[in-house]
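Researcher: If only I could read backbone structure tokens as easily as an amino acid sequence. Walk me, if you will, through where the backbone shape changes along the chain. I have put the entry right below:
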Amino acid sequence: MSLKKCSILAVDDDPDVLIAVRMLLKNEVQKIVTEKNPENIPALLKEHQFDLLLLDMNFKSSINTGNEGLYWLKRVKDLKPNLQVIMITAYADIDLAVRSLKEGAFDFMVKPWHNEKLISTVEDALEKNHKQQRAESRNSKDSIIGTELLGESEVMQDIFYKISKIAPTDANILILGENGTGKDLIAKAIHQKSLRAKQPYVKVDVGALTDSLFESELFGHKKGAFTDAREEREGRFESANGGTLFLDEISNISLTQQAKLLTVLQNRMVTKLGSNQPIPIDIRLICATNVTLADLANENRFRKDLIYRINTVEITVPPLRKRKEDMLMLAKHFANIYATKYMKPAVEFDKSAIEKLQSYHYPGNVRELQYTIERAIIMSDGEVLHSSDLIFSPIESAPVAVTVGDDDSNLSHLEKNTILRVIEKHSGNITKAAKELGLTRTALYRRLSKYDI
């Protein structure tokens, strides 16, 4: 896509920056829209079709995230996963800017920028977007969602068939499976094959929301509804109106939150905090959890009437150790992705690497395989990956004296003992323990809860 045909949104609370961007790009692009308040991003994305977003790293706002830029980047990626985002940052924010690349940003620009560099970066982002669109178009006939959801095993082919049958309906879907199996990819596949494919797809990790944030995040709030509510805010239900709402980690919400969610789903209405005016909603609901349906049906933990409401059809995603025939295909797929991303030559796996990949039990599932391949590509210097290049996460690769296979109880015992050992090593420091284990703090806390540690 050429600059002349593109539409760009620039969001920064510094009016001088917005003026500079507008002056630079107004004669270069088809449309440039500038905005000071990041709270207006969801509405602007809903109203306009942008090809690129220029987003500041820091705003003077009420969001207590530690960094507003990362917060809004995640919101944008929830609302518009394919929208390319270039972060605007100061020298002091370089570490945060690098973190933004892992969260899906295309690149970052340091203020003050060189005009030629900014235009060049914009052109590169647009070219990447164009290549992705061509790849999706080229692969749409061969897989569910282009190059993301892959599998040749019989169980994955059954899932693909199930998706093709349920996607065109408005049935509520519950996706079951261990962490890292690709539940979010299946949710996106259902949306992209549905009649709502051109409407918003909004993902929310509800398990990470506190009681105080739950209503505000999902239902929105009016200005002044609580101390820090300085602007009216659209909730995720409203953002997803007409499209699909994906609630991840649904099993982690409290009984109080469940009651509020059930009321909205029954009435198909949301009421913002601080308002008495209900807003009609039209969404297709997809939920996911890493617990079994039997565990979810424990009434001390989850309301059965809510289970029936969210579970018109269920899809169970198998762990990678139970579909080993897909493993090498996925490894090669990730190797191609990261070789391109890190500008490395295309690589092959030698016999020892293939044997190591096929003999491993993958407690971290596809996500663990993906990170293992990414690390191998980064560290490799040649065009062949050997077994020594494949280093699995410390939490999964601790010595184990059990037969590799489907013995989930042995794997759980191994994981629990490894977590205890690493936490003790760091004297109870959860941040350091999570870093060594290759987990986020949230993921580690979930494992602590799971094993009653």
About this structure: The chain has four domains: 3-139, 154-316, 320-392, 408-450. Residues 115-139 form the longest helix (25 residues).
